[in-house]
Amino acid sequence: MGEIRNAERTRKAILQAAKEEFFEKGYTGARIESIAKRAEVNKQLIYHYFKGKDQLINETIHEFLTSLPTGHLTLPANPVHIAEFRLKVNLENLREFLKFTAWEAIDIIPENVNGEEMRKKILQSYNEDMKSKQEMGLVPEELDPALITLMLSSLTIYPLLYSNVTRMITGHTLEEPEFQQQWASFLRMISERIFNKENTH
Question: pTM for this structure?
Answer without folding.
Answer: 0.84
